[in-house]
Specification:
The structure holds 2 protein chains of 2 kinds.
Chain A lengths: L1 H6 L2 H11 L3 H23 L2 H18 L9 H19 L4 H12 L5 H16 L3 H10 L4 H8 L3 H25 L1
Helix pairs in contact in A: 2-3, 3-4, 3-5, 4-5, 5-9, 7-8, 8-9, 9-10
Chain B lengths: L1 H10 L7 H18 L7 H16 L12 H6 L4 H22 L1 H9 L1 H27 L7 H37 L9 H7 L5 H13 L2 H9 L9 E5 L1 H15 L5 E5 L15 H9 L27 H4 L27 E5 L5 H11 L11 H6 L18 E6 L7 E8 L11 E8 L10 H13 L6 E7 L3 E9 L3 H9 L12 H11 L6 E8 L10 H13 L3 E7 L6 H10 L4 E4 L2 H10 L1 H5 L1 E12 L4 E7 L19 E4 L3 E10 L24 E10 L7 E8 L7 H20 L10 H10 L8 H15 L1
Parallel strand pairs in B: 1-2, 6-7, 6-9, 9-10, 10-11
Antiparallel strand pairs in B: 3-12, 4-5, 5-15, 7-8, 12-14, 12-16, 13-15, 16-17
The chains are: A mainly alpha, B alpha/beta.
């Protein structure tokens, strides 16, 4: 337990404690410290600035409400990831059921700057999302954020082997996709 | 390559956040924080409003939400107060029902028979209360966000009182429903309108509602269908509102499972943010109410400190990952322990003959693959060389008639890991039944739907696999479905594959839940298969499980005996294993062997594809049963021999000619390969030195043969076996190119299997050598299995 706590800086822990006690400035400081983390992860999740901002804001608000539930038993960032993920999922649902059409329509605008790579990745993320629950999140956490399987397991509330299994499925999927692409060429 | 770039792309960093957005988020969060942490003691008023909003969310009666972040504070706040609401409502509801019990003896009887329906109806009532209350809440909250919370509270209290009166009127109807539910619980119903679909049709407008509905598919049980069916006319969705922290929730869910074997939709409302502040008039905590209404069956713990994993609480419908409901047990996969075959000397009479049974199972390979994919070496007993070798298809020439369904192919080659030693390959390929000549099939799927199947690689994969199987059956074949969990039940009577829709929708409707206890799943399956028995056709039960074989007959031996007796009657059993952590391989093997079937381990859709589509004939249609091999080695030419694999299939020498002794079965198109490593007389590679004291007489005799192969098999439906004989020539001449190639590949697999088991006899053979040989002999590899093998060897190399 102490090990995971050490991952979060001592100062931050003190800050969290104060915020939990209802200290408004402490909470403000906490937001300043972690907004970047939240936003960046949200961005990776949806790859769209405005949407990421929405999600990040949602996450901040949720943080205000649920910070008291943080029990210092996991690293704060792990906890935060999970919070952002659940906000992102809520957000996606709130965007309505026609999400897939949206994606197709919005692609040009949804993809900023980096062009084809982004489109490709966006497609992939959507595919992963379809592949099964938690697939996209697993890929994001492990490949994108560099979490270990165990850490990702903590964030997503599943066992380490489930994470490994999901990555295996993702890998397989990528392989199949690859095969399809080369076939069609 | 692409995979790599995919990972790279994912690592790509996000752009820096926009300061304005940051500021906006900060402001919103701080405002929220201020509300959540008021300077004074927690005022009950805002809590109430949270309650109503939470209910709105939970019941999906919510008002329109103009997408966008600015409306979010409203919805995110409500969540952690939801608990309080649920508590109150549960109490109101159960109190009402309790009174009903006291008044109405018939309901009392119900609860005497089982506590469950009583509790159930309590919840039914309570959820009705919540829905009607939510109507009130809607009006209450419809005003501007800043409307006086106290007013809301008053309104709602009044409404709640009115609701109570209404509820009293509804009692009669509820009793009826309780009875109906009770009746429906007796059997697992034919699934109709799965609950999940129902949810998708519901407009989802708030994040909270979405959360609630997300929780639903994960937890909805077949019972939810019942409730949905029973209440259709009410156009209200039934919900069991469970209040408490996740820890106790889990406990209560378990209890419910055990008690009911099914459960209605559960909306999880976390209550650990603060203890629910009692509202006036409804002070007692939830447990009292529940205990009163349902006896001790739901002894409800007061919410303990929340577990660390509880992160998402604070909103209604906290999503519980399927896996977190039932943590995956790890490392409990059971394999039969065995020692690898040792070196034998034909010069010793007792060791001259090697007898074994055919083995067409492949589960060992799939299991090993799964372990390696996860980066660790499999436990040694999971590695059965013969199953790994037989996983692949080899080009052994097939027989061309059904009467003599196979002929042996014998190839002698040099051993790659022992200089001077030789390998003898004995391969057979079962006769392939042309698709138009396949017998009619009568298949009963016996599916484990217990709670432990609630993992992506279990029940969902089972469903997919079974759908794949449908594709390889004829329209006139029939498929029935029996499930077992808390209760066994027939989901689908034998239905022609032509009516595919019905079968797939029945499969789709299955949801995992309940303990694997109890009822006579396997007996029911056999009964079903016997009812639609096809005399000229194939009658087979496909048992899909993750290892819980608790199918109604206690005791492994008893189960085996049962399967064996049914086999005599012509109904066979195959076992498809899924998932890991609790997989009981040895039992799967034993059952399949006793049931004249195959045991396969399905770890992915592509494996299902292989077993159930490409090799459907092999997996389903037995062309020969009790296939036994016996090799007598010639002491004049063979100094030592060792069989690779087949340890668990060894037979006694005298069993070979005994038709009563069961042995492996071969399906249409199956290949079976056995490999012996021998040291010819005169080679220095001998492992066992000659005795100093006993002078072994020089054996002279037939120098042209290494040995003599005998095979016995029975055609399906026959009781007496047929013998095939063929000498193993020292100089068998060169085999064809393809056969040479496949000998090479199977040798590579054999080498790999031996290395995984410790490489006792393989000298300096390394993974590199195996990769090289496998690549050289990969051949056409239309389905990519052999390439996958190469990848596996690489993984093993990395994992060692």
């Amino acid at each position: 337990m102490t090990e995971t706590q050490q991952e979060t800086r001592m100062d931050d822990l003190a800050l969290i404690r104060r915020a939990q006690a209802g200290d408004q400035t402490a909470f403000g400081d906490l937001l300043d410290l972690y907004y970047d983390t939240i936003f960046r992860f949200a961005w990776k999740w949806c790859r769209h600035r405005a949407n990421a901002e929405d999600i990040a804001q949602l996450a901040c608000i949720k943080l205000a409400n649920s910070l008291a539930q943080f029990r210092f038993q996991a690293a704060f960032t792990s906890w935060l990831y999970r919070l952002v993920i659940s906000c992102a999922q809520d957000w996606q649902r709130s965007q309505g059921r026609h999400e897939h059409d949206d994606l197709a329509d919005a692609e040009p605008s949804a993809v900023e700057a980096r062009g084809e790579d982004q489109i490709y990745l966006l497609q992939l993320l959507a595919e992963l999302d379809d592949l099964g629950e938690g697939m996209k999140e697993t890929a994001l956490l492990v490949h994108g954020e560099g979490l270990s399987h165990a850490e990702a397991g903590v964030v997503l509330g599943v066992s380490e082997s489930t994470i490994s299994w999901r990555l295996h499925v993702i890998r397989k999927h990528m392989g199949k996709r690859e095969a399809k692409v080369s076939e069609s060429v | 390559m692409k995979q790599h770039s995919f990972e790279k792309l994912l690592q790509q960093d996000a752009p820096p956040p926009d300061p304005a957005a940051r500021l906006a988020a900060r402001r919103a969060a701080l405002a929220e924080f201020a509300k959540a942490n008021p300077p004074v003691e927690i005022a009950p008023a805002p809590e109430r409003r949270g309650v109503f909003q939470a209910l709105l969310g939970a019941l999906r009666l919510s008002r329109d939400n103009d997408h966008g972040s600015d409306s979010m504070p409203l919805f995110s706040r409500k969540a952690y107060f939801g608990a309080a609401a649920s508590v109150c409502l549960a109490i109101v509801g159960s109190t009402v029902v309790w009174k009903t019990f006291q008044q109405d003896p018939s309901v009392g009887q119900l609860s005497a028979r089982s506590d469950v329906p009583a509790a159930r109806s309590a919840e039914v009532v309570s959820s009705e209360a919540s829905s009607s209350k939510a109507d009130a809440a809607e009006t209450a909250v419809a005003g501007p966000e800043s409307s006086a919370p106290a007013e809301d509270a008053r309104l709602a209290d009044a409404q709640a009182r009115r609701d109570q009166d209404k509820l009293a009127e509804k009692r009669a109807a509820d009793e009826k429903k309780a009875e109906e539910l009770m009746a429906r619980m007796q059997a697992i119903p034919e699934p109709e309108d799965p609950v999940i679909e129902q949810y998708q049709e519901q407009p989802i407008e708030t994040p909270a509602a979405a959360g609630a509905s997300a929780a639903a598919p994960a937890l909805a049980k077949s019972g939810a269908d019942n409730a949905a069916g029973a209440k259709e006319k009410d156009a209200e969705t039934q919900e069991v509102v469970v209040t408490g922290t996740r820890g106790s929730l889990q406990a209560s869910m378990e209890t419910k499972r055990d008690a009911v074997g099914e459960i209605q939709e559960v909306v999880v409302t976390s209550a650990d943010r603060k203890p629910a502040t009692p509202h006036k008039g409804v002070a007692p905590p939830a447990r009292t109410a529940r205990n009163r209404s349902s006896g001790d069956s739901y002894s409800y713990e007061p919410p303990p400190a929340p577990p660390p994993a509880q992160i998402t609480s604070g909103r209604i419908g906290t999503k519980i990952e399927p896996t977190s409901v039932r943590p995956q047990p790890e490392g409990n996969d059971k394999f039969e322990h065995f020692e690898v075959n040792s070196i034998k000397q034909p010069a010793i009479e007792a060791e001259r003959v090697s007898t074994f049974s055919a083995d067409v199972d492949t589960s060992s390979y799939s299991f090993v693959r799964k372990q390696l994919e996860q980066g660790h070496l499999p436990q040694k007993d999971a590695v059965r060389a013969e199953e790994m070798i037989n996983y692949f298809d080899y080009a052994w020439p097939a027989a061309d008639s059904r009467e003599q369904p196979f002929r042996p192919t014998i190839v002698v080659s040099d051993s790659p890991w022992g200089k001077g030693r030789k390998l003898i390959h004995i391969g057979i390929k079962g006769y392939e039944i042309p698709a138009n000549k396949r017998p009619d099939a009568n298949i009963v799927m016996l599916l484990d739907v217990s709670g432990s199947m609630n993992q992506p690689d279990k029940l969902p994969l089972v469903k997919q696999s079974m759908k794949l199987l449908l594709g390889s059956l004829k329209p006139t074949d029939t498929v029935g479905i029996v499930v077992y969990a808390g209760a066994a039940g027939m989901v689908l009577p034998p239905t022609p594959v032509g009516e595919k829709e019905r079968i797939t929708s029945a499969l789709d409707s299955l949801t995992p839940g309940g303990s694997t206890a109890g009822a006579a799943g396997i007996e029911l399956a056999y009964q079903l298969a016997e009812n639609s028995f096809r005399k000229e056709g194939l009658n087979r039960i496909l048992l899909c499980t993750d290892g819980d074989f608790n199918v109604g007959i206690a005791g492994t031996e008893e189960l085996k005996g049962f399967v064996e007796r049914k086999r005599e009657k012509g109904v066979y059993l195959s076992v498809l294993g899924f998932g890991q952590g609790n997989y009981r391989d040895e039992l799967a093997q034993a059952l399949a062997q006793n049931g004249n079937g195959v045991a396969a381990y399905i770890d992915s859709v592509s494996e299902a594809q292989k077993v159930l589509v490409q090799q459907a004939g092999a997996s389903l249609f037995t062309i020969a049963k009790d296939v036994k091999f016996q090799v007598e080695f010639n002491p004049a030419t063979v100094a030592e021999y060792r069989q690779i694999g087949y340890e668990t299939r060894a037979l006694k020498q005298e069993d070979f000619n005994n038709d009563k002794v069961d042995a492996g079965d071969v399906g249409a198109g199956h290949t079976v390969t056995a490999i012996y490593e021998i040291t010819p007389v005169g080679e220095k590679a001998r492992m066992i030195e000659k005795s100093r004291y006993v002078k072994q007489p020089e054996v002279t005799g037939n120098m042209a043969e290494y040995g003599h192969l005998k095979m016995r098999y029975k055609l399906p439906g026959q009781d007496t076996s047929t013998l095939i004989e063929q000498p193993i020539a020292v100089d068998s001449g060169r085999a064809s190119e393809t056969i040479q190639r496949d000998v090479g590949f199977s040798t590579a697999v054999a080498g790999f299997a031996q290395l995984l088991r410790g490489g006792q006899y393989t000298g300096s053979l390394g993974y590199d050598d195996i990769i090289k040989q496998a690549l050289a002999t990969r051949g056409e590899d239309a389905f990519g299995y052999r390439s996958e093998f190469v990848q596996l060897v690489r993984k093993a190399d990395a994992a060692k």
